[in-house]
Specification:
Layout (H helix, E strand, L loop, with lengths): L1 H23 L4 E7 L3 H9 L3 E7 L7 E8 L11
Antiparallel strand pairs: 1-3, 2-3
Length: 83
């Protein structure tokens, strides 16, 4: 079970690294939103260097707040060893 979790985390981080490489080739910032009912995803993005910059209540669903997160090109992510 632990191996499966680590493999998923590595895949998620590698996928985000790929997306960030493409996005940062033409932009200085990346924005994303995370729903308030998904704290694990929010923590994942924070570990990758994203910071909450705002809240968007009822953006997609009534009663659900989306957290607007940003990562700037010069901010560093934690390494895979920090899982």
């Amino acid at each position: 079970m632990a191996c499966a979790y680590i493999c998923v985390v590595v895949i998620e981080r590698e996928l985000m690294a790929f997306v960030e490489t493409i996005a940062f080739a033409s932009a200085d910032k990346i924005f994303l939103v995370v729903a308030d009912f998904n704290p694990k995803a929010r923590h994942f993005y924070e570990r990758l260097g994203y910071q909450q910059t705002g809240e968007l209540p009822s953006l997609y669903r009534n009663g659900v707040t989306e957290y607007l997160m940003i990562k700037r090109k010069d901010e560093k992510s934690l390494s895979l060893l920090d899982i």
